[in-house]
Structures are given as structure tokens and as C-alpha cells.
Amino acid sequence: MAQNQHMEIIxxxxxxxxxxxxxxxxxxxxxxKLLWLAGNTALPVYHDHPHKRDEIQKYMVNDLEAQxxxxxxxxxxxxxxxxxxxxxxxxxxxFRTRPRMGDIGRxxxxxxxxxxxxxxxxxxxxxxxxxxxxxxxxxxxxxVAVVD
Length: 148
Description:
The chain has helices at residues 53-59, 64-81, 103-115, and strands spanning 7-10, 26-29, 33-36, 89-96, 123-128, 139-147. By secondary structure, it is an alpha+beta fold. It has a single domain (7-147), classed as CATH 3.30.1330.40. The strands form two sheets. It has a four-stranded mixed beta sheet, covered by helices on one side. Helix 3 (103-115) links the parallel strand 4 (89-96) and strand 5. Helix 2 (64-81) packs parallel to helix 3 (103-115). The mean pLDDT is 90.
């Protein structure tokens, strides 16, 4: 497991280690600097504001998994620009609209595929919200990382 030297995973002393947890209950930041990423969507990180309808229709297809992958790719690019990677993520905030049964599992599987190479499970908050920035937007993901 590629552990970030700036953080320590915190578990309760009596935790059940036989239970699969896709996230850590807590992470203690011991040193380093916090890196706050803006929320990422299926749109490219750099896109026009206000949003252009043709970009919305091109990137925000009605597919939760595709939007999740696009958001995670944007996060990966921004982490790399800061000299970081998914192993440096302390917390993930996942906002979803139009929740359906199984959505959390589908999203978690995609997110886990980006974290798996590092054996890392950041603390995570997963919320269903009424709406996000655009009607077609199904997900927005924001992360906080710790870096040198």
C-alpha cells in the first residue's frame, strides 16, 4: 500500500476488520499542505462560464458512470498538475442528483478503480442532492489532498 507520509488512517480500536469499507473513517493530516480542488463534473476542467449548451450536451450525457469517469479524469489531471496523485487525497465529497438504487455502488466502484493502484481509501461523504449546476449534471466530485 502506497501510504502518503503526511497522513495516518484512523480506525476505532474495536473496528470489525472483516467488513469491507470502500473508505476510511478518518484520516489525520500530520504534515504537508492542504490542496483543495474545485468540484469536478463531466465537463472538461477548463470550460466556458456561463456554460455553453453545446458543451453541456456533448459532455453531460445521461450516463452516471460516464460522468463519474470524466469527473475522476479531471481530478487526476489537476492532482498531477499539483505534483500529487490519488494517494494524496484526504477526503472526497460526492454529490449526485436523481438517485436510484445501486447508484452509490456503481459510483464507488468507478472511484475505487482510480484509488486501487495506491491501495488508498480516503474519507468520503456521499450525498444525493436536489440539483447541481446544470439539469443534465448527474454528479460532482470535490477532493481535498495533502501535499509537500
